[in-house]
Amino acid sequence: MPYAKIIGSGGYLPPRVVSNDQLAADLATRQIETSDTWIVERTGIRQRHIADEGVMSSHLATEAARLALEDAGVTAADIDLIIVATSTPDFVFPSTACLVQANLGAKGGAAFDVQAVCSGFVYALTTADAFIQAGRAKTALVIGAEVFSGILDWNDRGTCVLFGDGAGAVVIQASAEPGIIGAQLNADGSQTKILCAAGNVSRGKVTGDPFLRMDGQAVFKLAVNCLAKSAHEVCEQAGIALTDVDWLVPHQANIRIINFLGRKLHIPEEKVVVTVDSHANTSAASVPLAFDVARRDGRIKTGDTVMMQGVGGGFTWGSVLVKM
Ligand code: ACO
Predict the structure, then answer these.
(1) Residues with catalytic roles
(2) pLDDT in tens, 16-35
(3) What percentage of the chain carries pLDDT values higher than 90?
(4) Is 223 a residue whose pLDDT tops 80?
(5) C-alpha–C-alpha distance, residues 51 and 93, integer Å
(6) Hey, which of 39, 95, 105, 173 would disulfide with 113, CB 3.0 to 4.6 Å?
(7) Residue 287's pLDDT band (boundaries 50, 70, 90)?
(8) Measured between alpha carbons, how far is residue 168 from residues 177, 184, 244 in Å?
(9) CA of 155 to the centre of ligand 1 (A)
C-alpha cells in the first residue's frame, strides 16, 4: 500500500490586515469596548487578515492551491482529487472544491468539501490519505479555506476578536517512502452547543442564528484535553514516541490553548509552530497556513516528523502524523 507524501504547500491571506487597535477603534464606534491588551493577554492574537466584501473561500483556496502546486512542481492536470475543508463555503452548492477545480482548470477526478470546522483540515488530509492508500487517487490537493469574517457577529466582542480569513493547501502524492504515518479523528456530537453557527437557508429565508456562538471556557477545556489524548493515541498508532515529534502544528485558536497543550505533552515551545498572533483563528485554514509558514521559513525540513492537530465545532478533533 503506498504512503501519501506531502510534496508541496501554499498559504494565502487576504491583503487587508486589521490590528487589535484598529478593531477596538471600530467596535468603539458602536459602544463596544475591547482593547489590544485584553485580546493579547487572553488569546495571543495581535492582528487578523479580513477578506474584502465579495471575496469568498474559493478565491482564497485557489490562490493557496496555485502556490502549493508550484511548490510541488506539479500542474492542475496532475491532480485527481481535490478536498476543501471549509465551514464557510461560497454557496450551499456546488462545493467549494468544484469551484477551485474550475478556477485551476483541473479536469477529472473527485472534488468535494469536508465540514469539520476547525478540525476540517486534519479530517480532509486523513480522507485524502485514505484515497491514496486505497489506490483511488495519486495526487491530491487538500485545502483549508475560510472567510469566517462573514459569519461573525461584529457586535459580540467575545467572538469577533478571535477570527480571521485565509487559506492553506498541501499537495500529497502516492509514494513508496513514508509520508503520512498516522491519523486519528474523533467527534462528540453531544457537544454541538458550545460552538456553533446554528442557522440555515430554507424556503428562501435564513432561519435560526446565522452567526457563530461559543462558550469559550467550555471550548478551552475540551480542546486541551482532547488534543492531548489524541496526540498520545496517534503516536501509539504510528509506533513512535512523542519525543520523536520534531514539530507540533496545532490548530491556531488561542495561544493559551497552545501553551497548555505543549506543557501537557512536554513538547518544548521551540518545537511548536505558532501563527495565531498574526493570523488569528482561521478555522480549517489555520493548520495548513501554519504548516506552510514553517516549511517556507526552513523550520520544517525533509526527514522531520510533524504532528498536525485540529479541534473545533462538532465537537471534532484529531491528529495527523507526517514524515516529511
Ligand atoms: N474585550 C474585552 N472584554 C471582553 C472581551 C473582549 N473582546 N470578550 C469578553 N470580554 C469580557 C467578558 O464580557 C467578561 O466580562 P465580565 O467579567 O464583566 O462579565 C470578561 O471579559 C471575561 O469573559 P470570559 O468569556 O469569561 O473570558 P475568558 O477569560 O474565558 O476568555 C476566551 C474568553 C478568550 C474566548 C477564552 O474563553 C478562550 O480562550 N476560550 C477558548 C475558545 C477559543 O479560543 N475559541 C476559538 C474558536 S474555537 C476553536 O477554534 C477550537
Answers:
(1) 118, 251, 281
(2) 999 999 999 999 999 999 99
(3) 98
(4) yes
(5) 21
(6) 95
(7) very high
(8) 24, 21, 25
(9) 14
Helical pair 96-104 and 57-72, crossing angle rounded to 10 deg:
50
Q: 131 in helix, strand or coil?
A: helix
Give the DSSP letter of residue 222. H
Q: In testing the pocket of ligand 1, which one of 217, 286, 316 has its CB within 8 Å of the most ligand atoms?
A: 217
Nearest Cα residue to atom 26 of ligand 1: 217
Please give the Cα distance from 233 to 321 (Å, whole number).
11
Q: What's the predicted TM-score (pTM) here?
A: 0.97
The amino acid sitting at 7 is I
Residue nearest to atom 13 of ligand 1 (CA): 158
Residues 6+ apart with CB under 8 A from 50: 14, 16, 18, 149, 164, 165
Among protein residues, the one whose CA lies closest to atom 11 of ligand 1: 158
Kindly report, residue by residue over 161-181, the tens digit of the pLDDT: 999 999 999 999 999 999 999
* Cα 293 to Cα 10, 147, 154, distances in angstroms: 8, 19, 29
CATH architecture of 3-175: 3-Layer(aba) Sandwich (3.40)
Inter-residue contact 174 to 132 (CB < 8 Å) = yes
- The C-alpha atoms of residue 168 and residue 310 are separated, in whole angstroms, by 14
Q: Do domains 3-175 and 180-323 have the same CATH topology?
A: yes
The domain limits of the chain are 3-175, 180-323
For the domain spanning 180-323, the CATH number is: 3.40.47.10
Residues in the chain: 324
How is residue 146 written as a grid cell?
A: 475560510
Tell me the pLDDT band of 243, cut-offs 50, 70 and 90.
Answer: very high
